[in-house]
Amino acid sequence: MEELFYLAEDLGLEKGKDFDSKVENLSATFTFTDKQKGDLLRNVFLKKYAEGLINVGYISNLKKSAVSGKYSFKITIQ
Prior knowledge:
Elements: H1 2-10, E1 19-24, E2 27-32, H2 35-50, E3 58-59, E4 63-64, E5 71-76
Antiparallel strand pairs: 1-2, 2-5, 3-5, 4-5
């Protein structure tokens, strides 16, 4: 799970500033106020998954919360 946070840091994204995350059991939810940053990180995760460089079971679509107005996606580990 830590490798996911390293990928975000490699893109110059800072936890607490550019995104927040919540880890539960074998999943992590990444939340953004900036849709472009959310799309960027999600697309990097998808590319790394396709290349076999990260082992994940599922990467959800980026969704906008009607309540907070923030964007989020979820990743589960196999």
